[in-house]
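Bit of a strange request maybe. I'm writing a small parser for C-alpha cell strings and I need a real example to test against, not something I typed by hand. Could someone generate the C-alpha cells for this chain?
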Amino acid sequence: METFTQPKITGYRQLSPAEAELMNEGKALAEKCGEYIAKLRTHTQDAAILNNSGLVLDQRWISIGATDLQRGFMAVIRGIAQPTTF
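Reply from user aminoacidic:
Good idea to test on real output. This should exercise your parser:
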C-alpha cells in the first residue's frame, strides 16, 4: 500500500497505514450496504404494477434504515479518523 501525505486539514491528522486500511474496509462495506438499499428501493408500488410482481416494500422504513446505516458508518469512520474538532 502506498503512503499518501495529505495537506494539513484543520482538525485532522495523518492516518497510519493500518488506520487507512480499516477506513477503506469500512468504506467498502458502506458501499455494499448502499447497493443493497438501492436494490430494496426498486421494490415500489409502481414497479410492482409494471412487473406484475406483487412485491412492495415499505419505502419509509427502507429510508429510515438507509439513514441509520449512513449515520453508523459515519460514526465508525469518525472513530478511526479521530478528528479533534466538533
